[in-house]
Amino acid sequence: MGRQQLPPQIRKLDVADRKTGKTAVRYQLTIDAGSDPITGRRRQVRRRFKTEREAREELGKIAEQAATDTFVPRKAVTVEQLCADWLASLHNARPTTVNAYRYSVAPLRERHGDLVAQKLTRPDLDRLLTDLREGGTTTAKGSTRRPWLPRSLNKAVDAWRAVLAYGVERRELSHNVAASMRKPPRVHQEMATYTPDEIRRVLRAADQDRSGHLWYLALSGLRRGEIAGLRWSDIDLDAGTINIVRNRVQAGAGNVVENDPKTLSSRRVLPLDDGLVGVLKRASARNAEERLSLGPAHRDSGYVAVNEIGEPYTPDTLTRMWLKLAKVAGVRPIRLHDARHSCGTAMHLRGVPLAVIAKWLGHADASVTARLYAHSQDDALRAAGQSLGVVVTSS
């Protein structure tokens, strides 16, 4: 069988080897790759290969990409530049969302930032994901990361996919090597909530705490950002209502952003019981005394969650204060957000309809509420077991 003739797009050349000076055979590929989607000009690709097989493989690859309008010319944009451009393109995202994405792509930028994006491979990403799961990767500041949990790993995969999809959209990449990455299975973690006895112990400790009114609000179902963003002008102590109209959220270390609630359902007016009205009246009076005592030195920011000179607490500061209170109260530490879940759980165990709990907590959909509070606490389970025992033994 005779040697297969070269296609017209491939020429066999005799060229001088740059290292040895000797004559070497090379195969030059010249092919029309279609029109540039931006300029409309025809694109011609010219590349050289050491072997005929390499030239033929590249010919088939480029011809297919040109036919399907997926051809992307070689570009020098790096992974770092692509990540930076993608983050800068998130015009409609909240600062907290952008910061979360920045956190998720940080390992990718640190390890492969200098790599030309077109040379990034699926194995590169798989190895990075494995290293993040096992722990020990180094941050840009030189610290060592702890092992990432499945939730953080899944967010990282989502962010990497989005970065590379952005590159494909911009014609920087021909395909998304993260598109088919498999996420680690999420491990279900039971929600941590306080029992009625623990809530009473926390509130007793709160009564001795200058910021105790904040913990009453937390156990009344307010989010951390809602507490941080609450102003005295949002509270009508005479009518006994509280108006949730804003969030103050942490967007990175030391950076706090105030914005509207994430959803329309998060904006809500809640009635206050007499006990909480009394707690808030005492806090308001104390704030007035501090303002009068300090005079011009008092910030008078108008926020409910402030220090002695009227400066608003950051959300992260509220978290640290909450954990200190738990220690004083002698109860197990749970997240500040779980104080809100403790409220929802207590309502559920008392038979409050899920639709009402959803309205109170500001959930957009009662199905979210049902999914969150379909569990029961250990004490309630024991009571259910005792009830079952009575039924069984008396039957």
Characterize the main sheet.
3 strands, antiparallel
Helical stretch tally: 14
Q: SSE order in H/E notation?
A: EEEHHHHHHHHEEEEEHHHHHH
| Stretches with pLDDT under 50, minimum 5 residues | 388-395
Mean pLDDT: 88
The CATH superfamily name of the largest domain is: Intergrase catalytic core
Number of domains: 3
- Structural class category: alpha+beta
Assess the beta-strand content as a share of residues.
Answer: 5-15%
Classified by CATH, the class of the largest domain is Mainly Alpha
Q: How many DSSP-defined strands? A: 8
Range of helix content: 40-55%
Order of adjacent strands in the largest pleated sheet: 1-2-3
* Rg, alpha carbons: 31 Å
Supply the CATH architecture of the largest domain. Answer: Orthogonal Bundle
| CATH topology (level 3) name of the largest domain | hpI Integrase, Chain A
Features:
alpha+beta, 8 strands, DNA polymerase, domain 1, DNA binding, three-stranded antiparallel β-sheet, disordered C terminus, about 400 residues, Tyrosine_recombinase_XerCD, hpI Integrase, Chain A, single chain, 3 domains
Describe the structure.
- GO terms for molecular function: DNA binding.
- It comes from Mycolicibacterium smegmatis (strain MKD8).
- With 395 residues, this protein is α+β, with helices and mostly antiparallel strands.
- It has 3 domains: 10-67, no CATH class; 79-169, Orthogonal Bundle (DNA polymerase, domain 1), CATH 1.10.150.130; 196-381, Intergrase catalytic core (hpI Integrase, Chain A, Orthogonal Bundle).
- Helices cover 46% and strands 12% of the residues.
- It is built from 14 helices and 8 strands.
- The strands form 3 sheets. A 3-stranded antiparallel sheet has the order 1-2-3, with helices on one face. A 3-stranded antiparallel sheet has the order 4-5-8, with no helix packed on it.
- A hairpin with a 4-residue loop joins β4 and β5.
- α3 crosses α4 (122-134).
- It starts with 9 loop residues before the first strand and ends with a helix.
